[in-house]
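Z., the sequence and structure:
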Amino acid sequence: MADEFVSVRYIVQDVQEAIDFYTTHLGFEVNISAAPAFADVIRGRLRLLLSGPASSGARATPADSATSGRNRIHLVVDDLDAAVAPLRDAGVCFRSDLVSGPGGRQILLADPAGNLIELFQPAMRA
């Protein structure tokens, strides 16, 4: 399994809330749940490690680095407008407006702990 996935760890305040967010809104599936300390959810080849306050991953984090940062996971979608609409209807917290550039369109949202997620629709290439 280790060679099949790319893993990212997010520190969260409430593991079950994070599991519910990622599985309900972003298409992740639960791989391992040891809530309230830890969970492992997957989407494609991305393995997202959700570490609550009691987990060893969270305890190893220096106090001055304990808040969510500017890094984010990047999820590619085929239709950004179609992906955003149900999230808005569900009251998900968006952290940016929709931005268009030469590479495509994107918008940032936050999980319940404030960690950023980028939804990205690549530009059509000729």
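The mean pLDDT is 87. The CA atoms of residues 25 and 87 lie 7 Å apart.

Let me know what you think.
H.
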